[in-house]
Every structure is written in C-alpha cells, then in structure tokens.
C-alpha cells in the first residue's frame, strides 16, 4: 500500500507490513487478556534492510501503549563469540531493578547456577555443566517474567546471537505453554550453519505457526514512500527508478532518499539517471568513501566503534583510537550528523552510559568493520583487549579481541587465553573455552606448555563431546610435557572418553599400555584397576581368564587404599555378573566401603576414579538383593551431580541407575519417571552412546513390567532400541529386554533369536547371573510349546545357577519359571515355593507376579487379592488387570 501510513521517512520499513503488524496486535490481545493464557512466539525472517528492526520497534510501541513490560536484545556480527551476550542484554532491565540480595532471594536455587552466566554472581566452581546453566537461565527468565506480566521479549538479529543464548532461547521456546509471555524473534535467512542453525530451526519449530517472511516493497509502495519523503511532485519515472535501483529494500530506499535530499536533486525523470551513483554512495563501498570524506579522525573513531561492537562510549572509543576527549566528541557529533552513529533509544528501566552510541544500522556496522585494513584491525583488537584487561574486566571479556590477534609466539597471550577458557568453563560455556584454547594452540604455546593446553582442551569437552575429547587427549599424550600425575590423569580421562564414545577396546589398550610403563605400586594398580574396569563392562568378550586374574589380585587386597578398594569393587561386580555367590559379592563390596560409606577420594565427583566404578558398585548391590544400598548410592549420585550443576552424561547415568534400583524394588512409577528424565538428558549428549542405551533399555524394561507393551514398543522404535548394540554391558541386559519385548508384541521367532544371541554372549563370558540377564528364563517360557525338552533344560539350568548365586530373588524367579512349565499339583507346589522366596526378596514386582500366578494356579481368592494389592502398589497395571479378570470370572475359586 502507499496510503494510510505516517509520512515520516523513519516509518518507511512499515510500509506494506499490515499483515505482520496485525499478527503482532492479535498476539498482544491474547497476552493482555488473561494472565493464565499460554505464551506465544513469532518469528520474523527477512534479508538485511527489509524492516525487521522497524517491526520490532512497532511491537514495542504497541505493547508499551497497552501497559506491557518490554525487554529487548540484539545480536551483533562481531560479538557472536561472547557467551550469553544477548541473553544478558535481554535481562538487563530486570536485573538492574533488583538488588543483589533481592535477585538471590527471587531466583532461589537457580541464582548460583544462572547468576554467573548473567554476570550477577561469581562462579561456584571450576566448571559448570552447560545444560544445567541453560536450564537455570530458562528457570530464571520464567521466574522474572511472572513478576512482570504482561511481558514481551524482543530479539533482533538472532542469526548473530551467541550460541549459548540460542541454546537458552530454543529451550525457553519449548516451555511457553504455561507461561504468559510473547516472544518475537527477528533473523535473516541463512547467515548461520551448524549448531546455531539447528537451534534457530528449533526456535521456529516451537512457534507452532508459519514464519513471517518479509518481502521487498512493491513499486507502488516505493512511489508512496518517495513522495512522502521528497514531496508529492516526485514524478512516476523518478519513483520507478528509485524502486529499480533499491530493489524495493526499505533501508536502501530511505538511505537513497536521504542522499537525494542532501544533494537537492529534483525528483523528476530528467534527474533519475543520477540515482544509481547516489545509491552506491549510501552503502557498501560508497558508505566507506563517504566515511573517509569525513576525515581521518572521524574514520578512526568509526573504526574503533566497530571494533568495540558493544558498550560504545565516547570515552572508550577515545582510548582505543588514541585521541583526546574533545576531538572524540567532535568526531562523534560528525558521525551522528552523517547518519553513521546515533544515540540509542532509551529503554525503560535502564540507565544509559554517558556518551553511549550505536550504529544506525547493522549494515553500516558491518561495512565499517570490513573496511578496516587487516593490520590495523588486528592491532586495534589487541589494544582493545589490553584496555579491557587494565579496567579489570577479566580475561573472558578480553578474549573476543584476543581471538582476532595474529599468532606471534606470545607466551602471555597463551596464558590469557587459558585463563579466559577457565572463566568460560566456570560459567558453563565450553564452546567459548574451546575457541580460546584452539586459538592458544595457534600461537603456539611453548613446548613444555603445549601438551597441557591440549589436555585442557580435551577436558573441556569430556562427556559432552567424547569424540573431540579423544582427539585432543591423544594429541596431548603423543608429545612431551605431560608427566607424573598429569599424564596418568590424561590417560584415565582418555580411556573414559573412549568408553563413552563406544570405543571400549581402545580404552582397554590405552590404560594397559600406560600401566606397562610403571613399576609395581599405587599408580600401576590404579591403571590396572581401570583396565579391569573397562574389560569388565565389555558386553561381548570378557573372558574367564580375565576373571581369574582379577580374583587373584583382589585376594591380596584388604581395602587399605582406594586402588585396593577399586579392585574389590571390580571383583564384586565381576562375581555378580557371572552369578557367583551373592554372599561373597556383598562381602567384597562391603570391604570397599569405610564404615558403610564411600571412602574419601572415591566420591561421585572425585576425578581420580570416575563414576563408572561406583555405578558398578551400586549395580552389584542391586542384583545381590541389597537394594537399600543401591538406592542410597544412586540417590546420592543424583543429589551430588545436581548440586554440582552437572546436567550431562553424569546426571543421565545417575538417573538411569536410580531408575534401575527403583525397578528392582518394584517402584515402577518412580522408575519410569526417573528413566524418562535420564533419557532426556542422554539425548542432549548424543544418541547411540552407552549412557543412552542404559536409559532406553531401562525404560523399555519398566514399561514391560507395567504391562504397557505398545508404549514400550513405541519407545523402542523412537529411540532406536535395536541392533547393533554398544560394546559395553547395558543394565538391565539389553538382549534379554529386547527379546522379551519382541515376544510381548507377538514377534516370537525374532524374540527367540534375540534370547539365543544372549545365550551365546553368556557362554563367551563364562557364565551369567540369571537375574541380571534373565534370557534363560524368558527363553524357556518361549520354547515351552514348541520344544518342551529344551525349555525344561533351560529352566533347570536357571534354577541351578540361581541356587549358586543364592539370593531369594534369583531362586524365586527360577521357581516361577519352573512352575510356568508345569501343570496340576506340581505347578501349584512350585508356585507356592516361588512365593515363599520372593516374599523374603526386596523385589516387590516379582513378589506380586508370583502371588498372582500362585493365586491362579491354586484358584485362591485370598492369594489373588494379595497379589493384586501388591501389583497396585507397584504400578503393575497388567498384573492388576490379570488378577481382576480371574476374580471377576470366579469359576473354581475358593
């Protein structure tokens, strides 16, 4: 359209934007109507200059007129490497309105987590989990937004936002259903790739509505804008040429018309030929020429402003451009008059720094920055870093400038970047830490420091990107510099990264080779313990010979130090997996504790041994019927990791194994919710990794126990719960669970094949625990109809192994299997014995199942009722339905 718009040139980008403005107005209507309304998200997409910023400004105007609180932020091309830069901008009004003690009280537990990322609190440790920080930011914004309803959040140039902000935005956008807030995001198409592009796509998907793609002005609109700016006497050919020259881009049109006014060009056809030259002077190379025409001092001032990018004040620019205050103020005035710089619009709730400036448009900022000669640009970044350091703002803030400095064998620069990396890690920005350390390697570091930088780079990504960790730690160990404890720690971390990247054989070889370099003693014993650990959790080829060597070594251990305690735990886990005496398993595990608790230096966050050893300890207790200790250990892991802010692989595994303990206890509802949380966390780290399998397998097993077969199958399909399997042991046993799932959905032949594959794995490992890997029991039941002789043999073998292991659960489960293969009085007798054992077991689901089966076999109303009550308490829906059906039928019951 050409009419019905304000005539000021400044409103030009709103021409032909009626549909977008109407959408904004409608969203504000919904927001302001009811504080309980769901939040909404609008995404505006358009090329540079098409009016995205103007639409956000109009959104602010309409929102404030309706009494809304508006927070806004903007990405910047030169600031993408600054973590949390945009989200800090966004929250500035709210943060400045709170005193520190008020912020702490209002944010509660999230203050220590989100506060450092927002710059309002000191970090609580050396390393913060980035996912936990992201969750903390989501919670912080949600809490702050509830006190500001109705609230509107505006994010401009999101394509230039830092990755940490985009991660927060994607997570926040998914949680708008129960939060009454309007979020409007403006971005250019393209511009970004990789993780940032994925996150922006996730934001758009969360909007639940089509993205608003802005188009260029039509010839009619351009003509209307031209006449509104230059006068109604502008003729049609002239207006048509304005459109042809600018392509209908609103920003280019406004700039061109400003040049027309400045040059007093008459808007008539005879002068239309001069428009192309004027347009070239309005942007790009022409803009640079225009800047140079303002003089050397003004040019240097504009360069310095472009280098700073944010926090542009006359004082800071004067220091960077090395000019006195009077000259700097004169340059600022000159650049403002030339429409290159301007004073930022006031934002309610914030105080503007004296002499604060910003570029009129991001296109201008980009053109000015790109016009700086490379050598001058590098030097100015170096000076900017020095100024920031002198002002005491920290290495992390100076880092974005240090990253731009050319490598020059500068020892001090390497140390500054290492310090910046530590600061980034402390606030949960490992990507920023990685960039600093990668840049430090280019310097390069001194030979004696080089390996340490690689080691720090590897540690920055441990369990968030195991493949990257592996690469850097292998490089660090291949060069001189890492000696003594540092080298051993690097080897152990490398083996952990290889394990979590499903490279278990290489993990074993890594610690084995390092152990061979050391004489007998604590260091070698530690490395041997890790070797036995990785071999012990190998899912396919752990050999009987290895078990014998471990048993011999453990026999010499009394538990006097953590190396010996580790070997006792490994021996206990190995004995449990092979179905040796449960009493011996418990004795070994108990000897590894100090007064019933984990020894100092052997805790969940202690780096020397890692979490895998303690997961094995808890698992040994879980399958040896000491579920109280298993739950205590895994519950402690979850509390410790949560308190430490570790929201990646560590917390995922803690939840997965706590879910395992709940499942063993028969607390199926608790198990399901905990395992679902584990799976969400595991997906953030990456699919197909061992920790992902643990969460998925446990959830499928729990759903099967609850009788929700279709849901179990859906989860299996959704999360890829099918071969090929990882090389590590998965608890519960992955093939047993997969086989049971296939049988449950009627794919009997495939289920039998899966269980027979589990049988072959058990044979290669030299035996198995029939409770840990119940394939023999499930296979016996599956073969009962087609091969009763083999089924009976499998049931007898399971019973013999169960009696060897000796727990009430193992024997009771074997008796349940035997009863299922019998009929008449023999079946009743075996079912009754199964109840006797499982009544003494801590596994209540199995007890409930045995009660129901005995009630059916004995036709006993009392036993069915008891079994149904137990099943209800467990959340075993299928068992309840089965018992109720028999009770309701009532035939032959007594």
Automatic annotation (TrEMBL):
One Pfam family linked to the record: AAA_16
UniProt-listed SUPFAM superfamilies: P-loop containing nucleoside triphosphate hydrolases, TPR-like
Keywords: ATP-binding, Coiled coil, Nucleotide-binding
InterPro entries: AAA_16, P-loop_NTPase, TPR-like_helical_dom_sf
Entry keyword Coiled coil: yes
Coiled coil region boundaries: 494-521
An annotated Gene Ontology molecular function: ATP binding
Residue span(s) of domain Orc1-like AAA ATPase: 15-184
Identification of the protein by name: ATP-binding protein
